[in-house]
Task: structure prediction
Amino acid sequence: METILKCGCKITTKTSDGKPYCLIHDCDETITIDESLLVKRQAKCAWCGRKVESNTKLPFFKNKPESDCDEYYCGCGGWN
Result:
């Protein structure tokens, strides 16, 4: 089981009081997903379209169960 934000994003930021937060979607609600549901799913880089096996540990991972692929960022545009 993995805790992510309700918007589908991995927790990467916290508020000043320590609550998980997504800057992109202004979301602070968390959900728990069963990582076994990600088996046989792919995640696609939002920038270049590169596909890899879906995993909550991917950079900027976003679970998108309503889509064919989850989303992440592979670093193709740099990290700065």
